[in-house]
TrEMBL record, chain A:
Protein keywords: Membrane, Transmembrane, Transmembrane helix
Protein name, as recorded: DUF3311 domain-containing protein
InterPro entries, sorted: DUF3311
Stretches that traverse the bilayer: 34-54
UniProtKB/TrEMBL annotation, chain B:
Name of the featured protein: Na+/solute symporter
Principal subcellular localization: membrane
Lineage top rank: taxon: Bacteria
Organism lineage: Bacteria, Bacillati, Bacillota, Clostridia, Eubacteriales
Recorded family membership: Belongs to the sodium:solute symporter (SSF) (TC 2.A.21) family.
Pfam families for this protein: SSF
Entry annotated with the keyword Transport: yes
Gene Ontology CC annotation, any one: plasma membrane
GO molecular function, one term: transmembrane transporter activity
Keywords: Membrane, Transmembrane, Transmembrane helix, Transport
Entry's transmembrane regions: 6-22, 43-68, 74-97, 118-137, 157-176, 188-206, 226-250, 271-292, 312-343, 363-380, 386-405, 417-435, 455-479
Length: 66, 493
């Protein structure tokens, strides 16, 4: 088990475990109710994390050929 | 003849042209027709996979939920993101196995993994039962979009027929190539239109997002968050988990992964797809903008189109309609193709084993108009049964997940009997729950509220897992290890 893979758990924790703590309208962030801002942020972070995993994963090194 | 109609006609013709041209003189054997000869690069696979998110359900239903239900709508953003994370590891494994064994459909995967055409048959039947109502939903959406944006001058009936004919023609001719090329048109249109609407409407009517949301929060306290009961926090979490697991279990999504030319395609797409999903946010904004502008709509699914008609000139409404129609055509084409392939290969061929591969390919293409007609029939005559199936579709395909995920393990303890019994038990439970309109609360009234609000699909999943494990342990001795190894040799090509 390579440690960087654990990063992929963060969005699960943030969206599933986090949601009871962010179920509120205020404060507004970027004009969004807080719960919506939180979810949007999680989605953006998901993309960033998958980018990091892609970079660190040795399986993606080398050419396109299989 | 209004300008809006001309626009819609133009986009239909362009789709038809792209769909037919996509064939590019290829000889269409089953592998070319249904999985694109396994030669699609990142962009086309991206569009096929993204095609599953932007259906009429998201276009009409996403704004409809924002309009009618508010905060609970946000679950739609979550399950896709989580499914994409899993896809990074899951889809390359599926793709490798499919390529090695020359698989064409989702059912093929189970036939080979469990060495059981009967299990493949069950998965095929479940898939088709879930897909046909989904196709019906797309057609119904298409009908109401056209009749809305044509200001009633084209009836839904005519619109459905025209749409079905277009999609049937290009699916028969070009197969998945047609879906991919029309998806290019669809995604560029929908991206421009939806982002524009999601920015313009809130600023036009409220002067900005925060103004809009605080006006809604003031008029309807609690609307923007999850309620304490019903669509509550526990509903949210359980629904996100279940839909994330079921996401790739739709036969057309599952099999579209076979079209990739290499496995890195999926790992790259797992980076971009979550971000791309945020386009849905703009669909929600349009639905929220309608909340205070056109209250008391009987059918919330029309909120986006109604507000657009109130705001823009007919020529622009026509463009919105054209984009909406594309959201029905592209997923519709994938559903048609996957259903026809499955019926030919995993149902017909099981009963007529002497059918050659060329014949299967021919039958699959001839089935396209048949499946299309069945869908049209249900679109015009949807009795109670089809509504039930619509509600149950996602839960039905999710029942395939346990047998699937265990089959990826190196040492899978699940036997073909266990997989079969688990899926069957899960599907029967889903059917019972849907027919009786049960919830966890009505099944177990004594439980605390948080448990009562759990998505009732959880119950079916638990039944599925228990039966799957019990039957596998009981039958584990039946198929001795050497026999299973033999089976593996038998299927490897």
């Amino acid at each position: 088990m390579k440690m960087f893979r654990l990063l992929a758990l963060l969005p699960f924790l943030a969206m599933l475990v986090g949601i009871p703590f962010v179920n509120r309208v205020t404060p507004y962030v970027l004009g969004l109710p807080f719960i919506l801002f939180w979810i949007v942020m999680c989605v953006v972070v998901t993309s960033v994390i998958m980018g990091i995993i892609y970079k660190l994963d040795p399986i993606n090194k080398g050419g396109e050929a299989e | 003849m209004s300008f809006a109609l001309l626009e819609i006609a133009a986009f239909l013709l362009i789709s038809l042209y792209l769909g037919i041209r996509a064939r590019q003189g290829r000889k269409m054997n089953l592998e070319q027709w249904t999985v694109g000869g396994r030669g699609f690069g990142s962009l086309l696979v991206f569009l096929l996979m993204a095609g599953e998110i932007y259906t009429t359900f998201t276009f009409l239903g996403g704004s409809g939920w924002a309009y009618g239900k508010g905060g609970p709508t946000f679950y739609i953003l979550c399950y896709g993101a989580l499914a994409y994370i899993m896809s990074y590891w899951m889809l390359p494994a599926v793709w490798r196995y499919a390529k090695k064994n020359n698989l064409m459909s989702q059912s093929d995967f189970f036939v080979h993994k469990y060495n059981s055409p009967v299990l493949g048959l069950l998965v095929a039947v479940v898939g088709v039962i879930a897909m046909v109502p989904y196709l019906v939903l797309q057609l119904k959406g298409l009908g109401s979009i056209v009749s809305e944006v044509s200001y009633g001058s084209i009836s839904p009936t005519v619109a459905v027929w025209i749409g079905v004919i277009v999609v049937t023609i290009y699916v028969m001719i070009s197969g998945i190539h047609g879906s991919a090329w029309t998806a290019v048109l669809k995604d560029s249109m929908i991206l421009l239109i939806v982002v524009f609407l999601g920015i313009y409407l809130p600023f036009h009517y409220y002067g900005g997002y925060q103004n809009m949301f605080s006006a809604i929060a003031q008029a309807k306290p609690g609307f923007l968050t999850l309620p304490a009961k019903g669509l509550s926090v526990s509903w949210f979490i359980s629904t996100v988990v279940l839909t994330a697991l079921g996401f790739y279990m739709w036969p057309h999504s599952f099999a579209s992964s076979y079209a990739a030319k290499n496995e890195r395609v999926f790992r790259k797409n797992a980076i971009v797809l979550p971000l791309y999903q945020l386009v849905l946010l703009f669909v929600f904004f349009a639905g929220f903008a309608a909340v205070l502008q056109i209250p008391k709509l009987a059918n919330g699914d029309l909120s986006l189109l109604r507000l657009a008609k109130m705001t823009f000139a007919p020529w622009f409404v026509g463009l919105i309609g054209a984009a909406g129609i594309l959201t029905a055509l592209v997923p519709g084409s994938m559903l048609l193709m996957a259903s026809s392939t499955i019926v030919a290969k995993n149902i017909y061929q099981v009963f007529a084993p002497s059918t050659s591969e060329e014949q299967v390919a021919k039958i699959a293409r001839l089935l396209v108009p048949v499946v299309a007609l069945v869908a049209v029939y249900f679109t015009f005559n949807s009795g109670a049964a089809i509504v039930v199936l619509l509600l149950a579709g996602y839960s039905l395909v999710t029942q395939i997940f346990p047998a699937f995920i265990f089959s990826l393990l190196k040492n899978n303890f699940v036997t073909k009997f266990g997989a079969f019994a688990g899926i069957l038990a899960g599907v029967l439970t889903v059917t019972y729950i849907t027919v009786t309109n049960s919830s966890v609360g009505s099944l177990f009234p004594a439980l605390p509220q948080a448990v009562k609000d759990l998505n009732v699909g959880i119950v079916a999943m638990i039944v599925n897992l228990v039966v799957l494990a019990a039957v596998s342990l009981l039958t584990g001795g039946l198929a001795s290890k050497s026999e299973r190894d033999l089976g593996r040799f038998g299927t490897a090509k």
